[in-house]
Design goal:
With 67 residues, the protein is mainly α. It has helices at residues 4-15, 19-30, 40-48, 54-66.
Length: 67
Amino acid sequence: MITYKRLLDELKKEIGPVAKIFLNKAMESLGYEDVDDSNYKEILEVLKMNKDLREYVEIVEERLEKG
């Protein structure tokens, strides 16, 4: 199960503490207040729009899909 905390923790491993700002902005732009299994991929797609983050977000996405 994907949660806000899990997604944030994974992003922090790759991006660092600034991950929270990026995650919150992505969620805000989509109108989401929380992360779950039904919307995390959409949030990751928004994060991947930032070319500087794309590679790191793809690593996180792979990790989350593997379980």
